[in-house]
Design goal:
The chain is α/β, with parallel strands linked by helices and 466 residues long. The protein folds into two domains: 369 residues, Alpha/Beta hydrolase fold, catalytic domain (Rossmann fold), CATH 3.40.50.1820; 91 residues, no CATH class. The protein is built from 15 helices and twelve strands. The chain has a ten-stranded mixed β-sheet, with helices on both faces. Strands 4-5 form a two-stranded antiparallel ribbon. Helix 4 crosses helix 5 and helix 6 packs across helix 13.
């Protein structure tokens, strides 16, 4: 982080703190109460508090990010805070993380009501879902050109600005143990934001963003090693022929900026002629037959080829449609304090405009891992083993190039007297697989995902028996 940017952020923090200090002692800031959700339409009765609203991250362009906080169902005043980010780039953490994975509610098939998620992570932490960057979900910009020049750097910078301003609005979370989690392209967002926070905190003896660690699942990590691992997964799981496998390996240069025509042809042939109509995010589960769309084979959003793919976090297109119905309801938006500026488009789970126009993207986040491991952050990486989009082999290939010493050798971990997956602990990082889970691990294996999260928070090894 440059000195100029650090100074800019210090000014933000100083002004935000001074503006809220009088209202937060002894009462909470007024804006926090304005963000309180009384009740969502069709919501079952709950005892935990919820808040949602906007935080402006760029005044000049009019960029504002939308958040949803669901506090812990027990002891929220002492539980840690977890920020959840979904990927894409351009996909909503409310559509996926909150509504399909770790949030307290699920949406029914008619989008008329919500029901409780038994394995919600808000049993263990206060959950903060952020729609990022601007242009995702309810988050918006008043400068339309912003949608065509967004990238990794701006996203990380404005996520940090969001957190600084948000904690001024919610001072009870200052200095609280803080973690970040996410999946898919959030394999970029999460470590990049963690590095921004780590650099920002160097200016303080007692940082308000008390970052303790992060965890990522089925995460985009390194273009080269991810790509080799993905093709290997396709072949070893009988998704492609020997001929296509050899063709991809011989024609695709995974370190090149642009793929060759022969590489494109080989990958496209695999996806369009050999995969068949499967759910690429979960290769052994049925597809949603009522929402076929031939323009999106397998419902995987990708930009160009395997090499330059843009991976979204999405599982069941049917489930995604429930969210799109629910969050476009006027009464739901009123309850959420959302869409106050009346954005000129419908709320969608993912923004195709952002996916197609993503500007800067790190080819590898492994250098960030090395830096943050040295800094002593708790880092866990997990993989659902039935995902073919960012498969377990891709993650293992990438992590192996960190060359970390092994602390605890590979072993099976358990949940409910069943093997829940496998894990290995390295010096500075824990890797775990989740058996029978696809791209969105908490959706496919919610109980196992909760065991994983509890172990992560506690800083304990995954259980070797039930």
């Amino acid at each position: 982080m440059t000195r100029t940017r650090l100074f800019f952020l210090l000014v933000i923090l100083s002004s935000s703190s001074s503006s809220s200090s009088s209202s937060s002692r002894p009462s909470v800031p007024k804006q926090q109460e304005l963000d309180r959700i009384k009740e969502l339409p069709g919501q079952p009765k709950v005892k935990f508090s919820q808040f949602s609203g906007y935080v402006t991250v760029n005044e000049r362009h009019g960029r504002a990010l939308f958040y949803w906080l669901t506090e812990s169902s027990s002891s929220p005043h002492t539980k840690p805070l977890l920020l959840w980010l979904n990927g894409g780039p351009g996909c909503s953490s409310i559509a996926y993380g909150a509504s399909e994975e770790i949030g307290p509610f699920r949406i029914n098939k008619t989008a008329s009501s919500l029901y409780l998620n038994t394995f919600s992570w808000n049993r263990e932490a206060n959950l903060l879902f952020l729609e990022s960057p601007s242009g995702v979900g309810f988050s918006y910009t008043n400068t339309s050109s912003d949608l065509k020049d967004t990238g990794d750097e701006r996203t990380a910078q404005e996520n940090l600005i969001f957190l600084i301003k948000w904690m001024s609005r919610f001072p009870q979370y200052k200095y609280r143990d803080f973690y970040i989690a996410g999946e898919s392209y959030a394999g970029h967002y999460v470590p990049q934001l963690a590095k921004k926070i780590h650099d920002y905190n160097k200016a303080f003896t007692k940082p308000i963003i008390n970052l303790k660690g992060f965890m990522v699942g089925n995460a985009v990590t390194d273009n080269h090693y991810d790509s080799i691992g993905t093709v290997t997964y396709w072949w070893t799981h009988a998704m492609i022929s020997d001929r296509t496998y050899k063709s991809i390996l011989s024609h695709c240069n995974f370190t090149a900026e642009k793929a060759s025509d022969q590489c494109d042809e080989s990958v496209n042939y695999a996806m369009n002629h050999e995969f068949g109509n499967i759910d690429q995010y979960s290769i052994y589960t049925p597809t949603c037959l009522s929402h076929h769309n031939e323009s999106k084979p397998g419902f995987v959003r990708m930009k160009n080829t395997l090499l330059r793919r843009r991976l979204v976090s999405g599982y069941d297109p049917c489930t995604e449609s429930y969210a799109e119905k629910y969050y476009n309801r006027a009464d739901v938006q009123r309850a959420f304090h959302a869409n106050l500026t009346r954005i000129p488009y419908k709320w969608t789970a993912c923004s195709d405009v952002l996916i197609k126009n993503w500007r800067d993207s790190d080819s590898s986040v492994l250098p960030i891992y090395k830096e943050l491991i040295t800094a002593g952050l708790r880092i866990w990486v997990f993989s659902g083993d039935t995902d073919s989009v960012v498969p377990v082999t891709a993650t293992r290939f990438s992590l192996s190039h960190l060359n970390l010493p092994v602390k605890t050798r590979w072993y099976p971990w358990y949940s409910g007297k069943q093997v829940a997956g496998w894990t290995e602990e390295y010096k500075g990082l824990t890797f775990a697989t989740v058996r029978g889970a696809g791209h969105e691990v908490p959706l496919f294996q919610p109980k196992r995902a909760l065991v994983l999260f509890r172990s992560f928070l506690a800083g304990k090894k995954l259980p070797k028996s039930s």
